[in-house]
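Notebook entry, structure prediction.
Reason for the run: the old model in the group folder had no record of what sequence produced it. Starting over properly, with the input documented here first.
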Amino acid sequence: MRREGPLTRLWRNRRRRPPVDWRGRLRAWWPHARTALPRRAGAVVLLLLAFGLLLWAGAVIRHPVEAGQKLDLSPAGAFGGPLRTAGDHAARQVVGQLGAGLVAAAVIAFFPARLGIGTALLTGAGSLAIGYLRLGPPMTALETPQAVADRVVVFEGGMGSWAGIAAVVAVVVSLVLIERASNRLLKPAQEARRQVREAWRRLDARSAARSSGGPTAGRDAAAERARSGPSGRWRPGGAGTRDRVRFALGTTAVLVLLLWAAVEVRLAATGVHGTPDSWGTGQTGAAYQAGFVLLLTVVSLVSTLGTPATARGLFAVWVPATLFLGAWPGPLGPVEALRIPVFEGLFRAVAGLWGHGAFWAALLVALPLAAYGGLRTVRGSAGRRG
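New structure, fully documented this time:
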């Protein structure tokens, strides 16, 4: 009797997979989506207003500090002093950054995982810091419409010497907006998403039961449990090897993204940027990626030598260590001996896609992708273990 090969078994098992009931999924999704989508859109608007106000407040607070008056925000200098034109200068700075605020608001509102108010508050604190430190060139990928920019400048720039008091009020209003967006809009939307996923799981279970013929499904589930390893360990054999490789690849990708983002944020925060063309183009971060990708790959593979829980625990250590490596301003002692550049041309080509907007790409693309990739990798290892 001829034995079937692995490719034949793979194809046979693929054909046995139950078909996806797309119409049933759509029917289960729409009752929740028709209320969740408007909530998410409303959250984007509230978060954009909050982030825009915090960007402006940070820029206003910078002016008296530069003038040597520390944090004196009182409107005493009504006909002079640093605050007379602070609101106008801050507003002209903010209109070039509102596109970044919109992207950040959309990422939080539509992120494919549950995010709480803490993430929104952390993003708001980052907006305040960006405004104060004047980080980031004008965002050309999402420019503020000129009509909107003019109104922002007229409104925020018309505060005169009261701009300091208005900045304090703006911070308080932003906190309220973030709380409303997170608790009143996003929390119900995330609950609706959870209910949709549960409905889809029930549909998939019914489809699997119909396609497998009832009693056979129970035998298949028992066989799958028998193939699984002991609780808390990787699956045995080739399945366990694949799980380890998936985990190592996922964590390596996350660490490489975080390294690039940390380098670009550090360069933006410590450099002198007189013109938009003086901002980094991502090439320094790409050199770090090429130099340390092998090291990050090795530590990711080493993490899988223990149990899945050990791998996840070590991954939680590698994340801050990678951020520290990228944020350190110079060569990091003996670690430099482990720098072995590979694929440098590839990393530089990818970084070059962002041009002088590498700082925004680090915050708005690399960090969200790394967060989602980390969640998927960790949850995947928890779901595939024995």
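Summary: DSSP finds 13 helices and no strands in the chain.
The old model has been moved to the deprecated folder.
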